[in-house]
Amino acid sequence: METERCRGWEWVEWPDVEETAREEIAEFDVLGGKQRLFSPLVNLVKQRWPFDPQTAWDNSRDLQE
After folding, report:
1. Count of Cβ atoms closer than 10 Å to residue 42 Cβ
2. What is the pTM of this model?
3. CA distances from 45 to 2, 38, 51 (A)
4. How far is CA 47 from the centre of its chain?
5. CA-wise closest residue to 41 among 21, 26, 59
6. Could you tell me how far CA 39 lies from the centroid of its own chain?
């Protein structure tokens, strides 16, 4: 694994992920291209905002019934 690329993992609530992604999107040029979040998470916020994983899960469950 590339331990120098990741300071660690932790569980966070979705609103915290979304807030960090929005900050990262706004500061991308300032950070010189350094990312704190996994790129697909940042792209999810960019491309699918507003996105709520709980609502998406509930909707998918409704389709299965």
Report:
1. 19
2. 0.59
3. 25, 11, 7
4. 11
5. 21
6. 8
